[in-house]
Amino acid sequence: MSSQKNSWRERLHEIIFEADTPMGKAFDVALIMTILASVVVVMLDSVPSIRARYASLLFTLEWYFTLLFTIEYVLRLVLVKRPMQYALSFFGLVDLFAVLPTYLALLFPGTQYLLVIRLLRLLRVFRVLKLVTYLDEADTLYRAMRASRRKITVFLLAVSILVVLLGSVMYFIEGEENGFTSIPQSIYWAVVTLTTVGYGDMAPQSPIGQAVASVVMIIGYGIIAVPTGIVTAELTRVERRGTSTKNCRNCAHEIHRDDAVYCRICGEKL
Amino acid sequence: MSSQKNSWRERLHEIIFEADTPMGKAFDVALIMTILASVVVVMLDSVPSIRARYASLLFTLEWYFTLLFTIEYVLRLVLVKRPMQYALSFFGLVDLFAVLPTYLALLFPGTQYLLVIRLLRLLRVFRVLKLVTYLDEADTLYRAMRASRRKITVFLLAVSILVVLLGSVMYFIEGEENGFTSIPQSIYWAVVTLTTVGYGDMAPQSPIGQAVASVVMIIGYGIIAVPTGIVTAELTRVERRGTSTKNCRNCAHEIHRDDAVYCRICGEKL
Amino acid sequence: MSSQKNSWRERLHEIIFEADTPMGKAFDVALIMTILASVVVVMLDSVPSIRARYASLLFTLEWYFTLLFTIEYVLRLVLVKRPMQYALSFFGLVDLFAVLPTYLALLFPGTQYLLVIRLLRLLRVFRVLKLVTYLDEADTLYRAMRASRRKITVFLLAVSILVVLLGSVMYFIEGEENGFTSIPQSIYWAVVTLTTVGYGDMAPQSPIGQAVASVVMIIGYGIIAVPTGIVTAELTRVERRGTSTKNCRNCAHEIHRDDAVYCRICGEKL
Amino acid sequence: MSSQKNSWRERLHEIIFEADTPMGKAFDVALIMTILASVVVVMLDSVPSIRARYASLLFTLEWYFTLLFTIEYVLRLVLVKRPMQYALSFFGLVDLFAVLPTYLALLFPGTQYLLVIRLLRLLRVFRVLKLVTYLDEADTLYRAMRASRRKITVFLLAVSILVVLLGSVMYFIEGEENGFTSIPQSIYWAVVTLTTVGYGDMAPQSPIGQAVASVVMIIGYGIIAVPTGIVTAELTRVERRGTSTKNCRNCAHEIHRDDAVYCRICGEKL
């Protein structure tokens, strides 16, 4: 990409930021492994029984990963052309939050809960993956999601209003004595029911409440068809567009239908 | 739209009923905010702990919103050409029910539950949204739903009969000692199971009951495919049809893409 | 349809078996109403509190409906050309089972549970509906289901084997002390989980069990896509075929694609 | 297939390994029956009440099936051309594991749990089915799954990361006092909720936790659309492609329908 390829700076940049060279790929794989291992350590650290036993081992591992990520963060800051822009970018902040909580917990004891933030490290996997693999597949999915963005917003809006109204009706019917203690609580029940999750921590007791709940469930069962329909229709469309490979010789217009005889833009016979 | 644009009546009508002018848009946004705020107040008012603390604040806010909506309702009645027709229309009644319960609760104490009706205010958001945004998306969804209306009715009819029969069979198998106290109760269980909600407040205990329940679950898991298939097929069709309006003058071929300049079958310039 | 239209026999046959005449339609509507009312009576009869209060009213109503259905059954037997064939047909047996349990309960007291069979009356609604309405929609759905019959069988077979293996694994992992008392019981749990019903009457307690359960849930969440995909693909195909209205002038072959220029069977230019 | 058809070896090979002859078909059906019967015996053996009663009968049946499968396994080893390759193949190992546990339990008492492995016999049904029926349907499904393999991997990856982050957030919000005792436990909750299973063994108690849970449910309810969309789009494509194999000699147009006699674009006889 540039002519002074020999400087260590250029080479480090290539290893850390790109995935085309063998060294770059090896770095990416090692980074993903390290991220996943550090996430597992954070998780195990939260299990009381494991913590009681291996506290010092987990503590050592955590500092080992934190130092590794700190070195990586500093290297990225040094190597990148505009350090400020990187530091304030989404992934720059994720990189910072991946190391900050460990240092803060050292300075201010009692901020144990802050350590959960370290799990944001998991987001860093996305950056690496972005460079390496599955690019096309993720892109097709992303484009289909983006294209159906507005339809899904309309759907979620309708669902939200439905949930508020149904929850209020159930508050009115079941009342506090059956566990529907407030409207927000009843709306929570409506969400649990409409999405077919159904914990069972709140369930209608009265016959009328059960009848209304049945209607809610059947509605929820039915309208799940809507987002599915939206995404499917979009995916079919995105993929259909994606399979066209011919181009018009005259105007270079991409031919979308296999059975076209004339280019529909310039009229050239194909 | 008219020539006497200067009269206050015309201008107020434009602000309240239309969304094309800056003032009209600002009014719509303010109205949505007010509606949502008033709905939040109604919700919080139902939470015992919050009510105990902020009763007077919530009371004041409620009256503030009620007065605002009353003024708006009166203005709409005055400004519209046929006030009676508006008053009896769906949104006219919603507007009325948005303010009425607060006044009624003043006159007849003890009608606390009536206050839930105020949540119908939420429906007013739809009218505003109708004017402002997302029009096309909602329309596509609405058309797909309308077109698949009858198929979904057939499906729901079949599901209803299935649920009644399955519920009765379970009442017969499990009986009152396992919580299936009556046929309606067992039908409620069948709905909870078939829609994959699964509260767990009623669950089969006997081996035969569990076997039948397994069949019900797999049926429910399978037939959710039907409404999804209906809506998806319809959405794909509506979208395909929705973009094609022209026909080729020469060969009468239907033009499927808006950007076509030449017919792709006979080469005629469109 | 025939020339001796005046005989009472012909006219009764028309009223009971057909839905084209006003009288025939009125009979069908009245029959549906009666069936639904009798089903509601059977349901209410199973609710202990209602039974205690209105026992004699429900008893009277039940006999009223039974007599009505008996008369109808006898009339059908008399009017139809081949009474034996009708009596042994699916709907003939349903008609018989709709009245038999009431008489049996009279002769043999203690056969209360047999009364549940009366709910099979609900199936009679299908025959009436078949004549009246929604014919096309049910037919499209039925054809799509039929066409995807074998694919769905393969899917259900795979799901069944999966459920048996997953249930056995969980029996091995969780064991009797966590409620997984036997392999059939564990298979029941696997069905409840895979279909995303999730009663919660059995839930894994050990960390490994919860990890395996998580995998089961994600599999269940993913493979619900398969039946949906099958039915949707079929519905799209059935409908596409259904929308073609042109026919070839030469060979009367139905034209399936809007953009066809020549008939693909006889080569006639369209 | 060969000329020395009369040798018993050839004929036994045909019966056991092929399904074209009547004897071969009969053998396959008998084998499936035996496998299913032996699986039922293993299942019943795990039910405490049945085991207590019919221990000796189940023991006899188990040995009967084990001997049958042993004979079959030895015959396969003898008849196949490369016994070593068969013994180490997937189905060869399944055949071995189908008989081994019974013998091991004889030698080493107390290995009761090993007996669960015998349920792997169920996998043997697949080999038989592969020869007999439903081949095309399974193949279409398999191809659609294979084609959407990478997209589903991307989806599952995204879901996994989402589940870890959401679980951690809930651990932070609800804490140990509400049953969210560790991050892995909270991730388990997130899976149970996102997949809409909803056991109810863990449920958020605090208002904020319930609000976050509502968002998780609606996300789960929405993104189920993604795998469905992927599989549906793929199935539609596989089926469309599967039926088109010819191309027009004149205009190279791909023929989409098997019954076409003339190209619908240029009118050339095919």
Q: What distance lies between the first and last C-alpha atoms of chain A, to the nearest angstrom?
A: 39 Å
Helix content of chain A: 55-70%
Greatest contact pair?
C-D, 59 and 64 residues
Succession of helices and strands of chain A: HHHHHHHHHHH
Q: Please count the beta strands of chain A (DSSP E, at least 2 residues each).
A: 0
Main β-sheet of chain A, in a few words?
none
- Uncertain residue ranges of chain A: 242-246, 253-259
Structural class of chain A: mainly alpha
Q: What's the number of helices of chain A? A: 11
Q: What do the pLDDT scores of chain A average to?
A: 79
Shape of chain A: flat
Radius of gyration of chain A, in angstroms, nearest whole number? 27 Å
What is the quaternary state of this protein?
homotetramer
Topology summary:
The structure is a homotetramer of 270-residue chains.
Chain A: H1 8-17, H2 22-45, H3 48-79, H4 83-88, H5 90-107, H6 124-132, H7 135-147, H8 149-174, H9 183-194, H10 207-223, H11 225-242
Helix pairs in contact in A: 1-2, 2-3, 2-6, 3-5, 7-11, 8-9, 8-10
Protein model, in words:
- 4 copies of one chain form a homotetramer.
- With 270 residues, chain A is mostly helical.
- Chain A is 69% helix and 0% strand.
- The first copy, chain A, is built from 11 helices and no strands.
- The longest helix of chain A has 32 residues, at 48-79.
- The first copy, chain A, is flat and about 75 Å long.
- Chain A starts with 7 loop residues before the first helix and ends in a 28-residue tail after the last helix.
- Mean pLDDT of chain A is 79; it is low at 242-246 and 253-259.
- Chains in contact: A-B, A-C, A-D, B-C, B-D, C-D.
